[in-house]
């Protein structure tokens, strides 16, 4: 009997401690729950409405600022660019060089600017303004093709350094890695989408060498992706020259020409937006599929190195 009494007392003490532990656990859980749900409880409809009003106020304010800046640019900036930049350039090109020499200068600028990460848009505009759609298109495509090959070949020499540099931006590196995956047709499509999308292709020319990208899909995909941009720059260059002739020359637009220019300008803007949105959406879809196929975050964000000898013998010899 004394043993049974001691056993009962021991069980009672153990059950008491267990109840204490359970109550302590319940207390901690109960105390933690309001902290987790507190932000959601505080989001009342009034605060949600205030946040929406604040967001729309900022959006309207920025729209107003952009409209005012655009009006100021149209009022004072455009005349300044026409009088101090565009007209002197047009006069200079008509007197300083012959057209063959000027064409070579534009091709050289389009080829060398991407090597130094300099935007080549002004040279494309000049090609469109001076040479028009036919010869201007040839100049742009020849120059930009060389401008895509030179960074690619230079990047092969510094592939390991570029690989280490891209590790600082793992998400962008994961998007670039998409270009080197899949078949040649897939690589062609992805490279063309990169050229159309807002992704800075001057950086893409160097970064693509650390992927498994083949040379010919890179070349033909780059050319296909640059065709819409080339026509857009030629069109905008011709339109700028038309405005310059109307404002500072003796040329007068007929109502039919005005309507045609307005319609073509709207079509060009819509086409550019559609191409850009489509390219960005397709790249996002490819990135999502690549993320789903990855087994770990290391596989998702780490750039894969090419074999050290394969690109040198395989790609350069194919030239």
Written account of the structure:
The chain is mostly helical. 82% of the residues lie in helices and 0% in strands. It is built from 13 helices and no strands. The N and C termini lie far apart (100 Å). 23% of the residues are buried. Residues 19-42 and 294-319 have low confidence and may be disordered.
Key phrases:
single chain; 319 residues; disordered C terminus; mainly alpha
Give me a quick take on this structure.
The chain is mostly helical.
- Number of extended strands: 0
Basic shape: globular
Name the average pLDDT.
75
Can you tell me the residue ranges where pLDDT is under 50 for at least 5 consecutive residues? 19-42, 294-319
Number of DSSP helices?
13
| Helix amount | over 70%
| Secondary-structure element series | HHHHHHHHHHHHH
Radius of gyration of CA atoms, rounded to a whole number: 31 Å
Percent range for β-strand residues: under 5%
Distance between the termini: 100 Å
The biggest beta sheet reads: none
Class of secondary structure makeup: mainly alpha
Write the layout of secondary structure elements.
Layout (H helix, E strand, L loop, with lengths): L1 H41 L2 H51 L3 H14 L8 H11 L2 H24 L1 H8 L3 H8 L6 H13 L4 H7 L7 H34 L6 H39 L3 H5 L8 H5 L5
Helix pairs in contact: 3-4, 3-5, 4-5, 4-10, 5-9, 5-10, 8-10, 8-11, 10-11
